[in-house]
Amino acid sequence: MEVSGRKECDDKHSTSNQGRQLTVFCQPCECDGDTVEAEAFCETCNEFICSPCLKAHRKLAISKNHVIKSKDEMPKSRKKQDDPCTELCSIHHTEIIKFYCEDHNSVGCGDCMVLSHKTCSVKLVNDVSDSYDTSEELVQIRKKMETLLSRISSYQGDIVEGIKATDEMREKIRKEVHIFRQEINEYLDNAEADLLKRIDQLTSKQVSQLGHMQNEFESMKTEMRKCQDEITKLAHEKIEACQISTVELASKCEIEIFDFVKSQELEKVVKGNIAIGVINEQKRKLRTHSKKSLKDIQTTLLKSLNVRSVKDPKQCFISGMALISFDELLLVDFHNHCLKLLNVDKNKITFRLETDGPPWDVTDINSILFAVTLVSTGEILFINTSNGIFKSHSIKVRGDCRGIDYRDGVFVVSFVNPGCVQLLDIQGNIMKKFDIGKHCPHPYYISLCNDNNKSYIVSDYYENALVEFTVDGKVKDKITSNDIKSPRQLVMTHDGAVIVCCKGISDKLIMVTPNTRKVLPIAVKGVQCPFCFAVSDDQTRMFIYDGSKCDIKVFDIN
Description:
The chain is an alpha+beta fold. The protein folds into three domains: 6-70, CATH 4.10.830; 157-271; 299-557, Neuraminidase (6 Propeller), CATH 2.120.10.30. The protein has seven helices and 32 strands. The protein has helices at 27-31, 51-59, 110-116, 125-132, 136-229, 233-251, 264-271, and strands at 6-8, 22-24, 40-42, 47-49, 68-70, 99-101, 106-108, 122-124, 299-306, 318-325, 328-333, 338-343, 348-354, 359-364, 369-374, 379-384, 390-396, 401-407, 410-415, 420-424, 430-435, 443-448, 455-460, 465-470, 475-479, 487-492, 498-502, 508-512, 519-523, 530-535, 541-546, 551-557. A hairpin with a 6-residue loop joins strand 28 (508-512) and strand 29 (519-523).
């Protein structure tokens, strides 16, 4: 019977007359389909190796300190490995990790335990691993691994979609360039035809006039020749009349000079080798829209972020935030009349932009353009985030504007004093307007629902309620609960659930389930006064502004 690393050889391959004997072969070579006799045995790897493999084994940093047995010393068969520990210590490179410290939740070799964990509770890794398979920690690790694998698959799906979108974008732009080129050709053909027609009209008129004058002079010549033949008293009068006509006609003998003056704009295009257009390049993160529901989610606090800038004259009050990328947040500071760009990984304010009056809420239009409401001036300010944050332009709206959301070319904006909602296009033109003060006098925040902009939902800070309206301004639903206290910012998830920050409740957010509109808590331990928040597109991280601490807490979503 054959076993790994060993094969029987015939008598002709034997070095003695004892008949058949066992020859041990190199296991790495066997994996490549080669049969090479082993010349050594690595006890650390528990593997037979040949001379070339041994040389490589001793050169690699990861295996150069392994315990090697020569051909004379090596075992006749591969050992059964009772001890699963084969990984070398990262500190003491020649020692194998065999011990686990319960106090510090870390593993190490014997040297590590003697030097750094003398007073700790230490066990053999082999003993701990027997019970580890059923431990809660392992269950959580496996769960996180499954989540990570699912997330990776989702990202891979996004890449496939990204490739498809890139191909479609290429064909779309090629078609647009071709159409624009045809439009330019048509424009130039028409412009050329108009100029040629005009010059034909001008020259034809002048040729006709000159021809008429030529005929008149010819008539005068004929008249004078006739007078030469018939010199009479009347001839004198005819000569005088002809002289007068000649002078008058001669005064009209002029022509208009035409020339072609090139269009300066088009000449600049030609001489400057100006392109007929440019390909506008923008970086956009592949946004993974996870299919998992936020029901029964678990959150783990990762860290807290500072929102204060050295230029802030007042205590910060972050009234709105938006996720620009996986590690950048756009913050709306109401008290300090500014917008801030916060780098999550570095925990640092990288850009700060002052606004004309207090800003309140923010929504994204695309990956680099965001819209912010300015309360006192009654404006929607457009912010470009392609390189820091700077003002793009603004559109005028009514004063006391508060919440804002954008989707598919439509803004929905809430106003107070009195309560009102307006639907605007991207240019700021009012498409629809509703007075909602009777049902919701203080609509501080607003969000479009996932029904092709057929309805929207607002949070009433003082009435402790969420009210859903149709785009015709009719009340669709009013949601109240003991858990909905002083509701502020709300976010609509991809599956139609509504997550709300409630200032009056600590250590949790509120989720309103789709369809049933059941109110459920989301535990966010450590947040005493949630004001506003943002959720990453793949729904793996949540950012919550805690008004009691004036910081942003980052949570991992499991």
